[in-house]
C-alpha cells in the first residue's frame, strides 16, 4: 500500500454532485471512500463504497475505519450528503425536521469529528462542506427555512473549525452552490430554475467539483465560504 497517495472521503456519493466528486478526485489520483445510503460496490480498487445513512454514527465510524484500514490515511473529507425540503414553514412536519437535522447536521458532525481525529495524527487535512447560497440570499418562492437552518449552521461551523484547527494543519472550507443541474431537478423545471440566477443558467456539476478541487489545492485558504451560484449571493 502506498500510504503517500492521498485519500478523500465523499458522502452522498452515489449520484449528482457526489458522483462527480468521486470522479474528480480519482482523476487526480486520490483514493476515495464513497458513502451514501444506496451506493453500489465499486469495480475500481481505489474506490471503496460504504453504504449506509451518514446520520448514523456507526456508519460514520465504518467509513473512517475503512479509510484507515484500506488506505492508511485521510487527507480530505467532503461533506456532500444533504437533503433539501422545499415547503412553506408551517407545512413542515416533525419528520421533515428530523430528516433534515439527521442528514445535514448529524451527518456532518459524526464523520467530521472522526475524520479530524485522524487528520490530527497526520498533522494535515482538509474539510469541505457543501452548503447552499440560499443561506445568504433567500429567494421569494423558494421556501428554504430548514435548508437555511441546517446549512447555515454548517457555514458557521466551517469558520469556527477553520480557526480552531488552523495551527494544527487542518483547513476547513465550504462551497455554497446555487441550483445545480442534477437528477434532483426534473428537466421541465430547468427553465424556471435557470431564471433564479443572474447569469441566466443553472449550475453544472463540474462547477461545484471545480470549486472543491480548487479549495483542496489552495493551501492558504481556510474558513472560506465559496459561492458557486451564478451571482445569486451578489444580488439581483
TrEMBL record:
Keywords: Oxidoreductase. CDD domains: SDR_c. It comes from the Bacteria. Coiled coil: none annotated. PANTHER family: OXIDOREDUCTASE, SHORT-CHAIN DEHYDROGENASE/REDUCTASE FAMILY (AFU_ORTHOLOGUE AFUA_5G02870), SHORT-CHAIN DEHYDROGENASE_REDUCTASE FAMILY PROTEIN. Belongs to the short-chain dehydrogenases/reductases (SDR) family. This is SDR family oxidoreductase. It comes from Dyella kyungheensis. The lineage of its organism: Bacteria, Pseudomonadati, Pseudomonadota, Gammaproteobacteria, Lysobacterales.
